[in-house]
User: Which sequence fits this backbone?
């Protein structure tokens, strides 16, 4: 019997603890000084990961084992590490502005939700200066020039030897994303239209949400367009919306047609062209 196929919880916890410690050193250049483990194997948690900070005991990071061989796993780890390091630095450690800026820097996106476009991207790095770049599946990383040091050619991060498994998984997931498109409605203030279901369950009066979990998602494009029209919003593909929401927290609005653009930098005000009306005058609406 192959040991690796039937890991005990204890062995698995050792494995994931070592993994998190490697990610901390590689992506944050800081040690993770506490313990990471999987949620119990039978657990059905609503979340991919969490860090707990019990008052009497040291912090513990817990991760969902079933995601281990998935491209989004390392992002969940980075996401939880940001919570952890903010806590260690005695700073507010929620999903605040600093959190999101950090999330952009280390590529921790797409971890608020179980879906996402992680399967459509690889994480590349410049072999000379270490600059990180998201590389779309199918694009040739050897033909890309580093924006920092001008070196030609990126490498795909092998993620501690996990890449092969991930690429196999990604093929299935990509096919699903492409064959079953789903849509979401982005509103003029940069939030999303809330699903009626979540309004009912949470008893919230607001029709908008900034968490992807309670957003309105549909596979019916004409329905989505109708709703977008009613709320002066715009229809986005669900998987890109998820990615934009975390990694592009800076909101710009076209002055002419009110279209919203999410970007990953606050310094683009004079460099944007509206995707709808081709207008070039934007208003910076802040971070969300
Ligand atoms: Zn979080
Ligand atoms: Zn470079
Ligand atoms: Zn416009």
Assistant:
């Amino acid at each position: 019997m192959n040991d690796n196929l039937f890991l005990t919880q204890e062995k698995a916890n050792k494995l994931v603890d070592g993994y998190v410690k490697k990610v901390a050193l590689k992506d944050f250049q800081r040690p993770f000084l506490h313990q990471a483990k999987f949620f119990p194997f039978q657990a059905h948690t609503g979340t991919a990961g969490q860090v707990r900070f019990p008052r009497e005991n040291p912090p513990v990071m817990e991760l969902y084992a079933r995601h281990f061989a998935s491209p989004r796993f390392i992002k969940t780890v980075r996401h939880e590490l940001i919570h952890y390091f903010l806590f260690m630095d005695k700073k507010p450690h929620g999903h605040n502005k600093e959190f999101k800026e950090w999330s952009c820097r280390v590529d921790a996106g797409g971890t608020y939700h179980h879906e996402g476009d992680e399967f459509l991207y690889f994480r590349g790095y410049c072999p000379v200066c270490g600059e990180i770049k998201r590389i779309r599946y199918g694009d040739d990383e050897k033909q890309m020039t580093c924006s920092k040091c001008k070196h030609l050619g990126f490498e795909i991060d092998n993620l501690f030897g996990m890449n092969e498994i991930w690429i196999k998984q990604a093929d299935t997931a990509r096919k699903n994303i492409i064959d079953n498109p789903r849509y979401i409605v982005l509103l003029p203030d940069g939030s999303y239209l809330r699903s009626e279901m979540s309004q009912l369950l949470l008893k919230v009066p607001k029709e908008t949400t900034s968490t992807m979990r309670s957003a309105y998602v549909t596979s019916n494009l004409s329905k989505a367009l109708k709703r977008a029209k009613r709320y002066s919003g715009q229809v986005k593909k669900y998987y890109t919306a998820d990615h934009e929401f975390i990694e592009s927290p800076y909101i710009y609005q076209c002055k002419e047609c009110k279209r919203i653009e999410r970007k990953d930098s606050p310094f683009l005000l004079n460099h944007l062209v509206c995707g709808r009306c081709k207008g070039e005058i934007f208003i910076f609406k802040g971070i969300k």
Observations:
- The pocket of zinc ion (ligand 3) is lined by residues 254, 256-257, 259, 274, 276-277, 279 (CB under 6 Å).
- Residues 9-28 form the longest helix (20 residues).
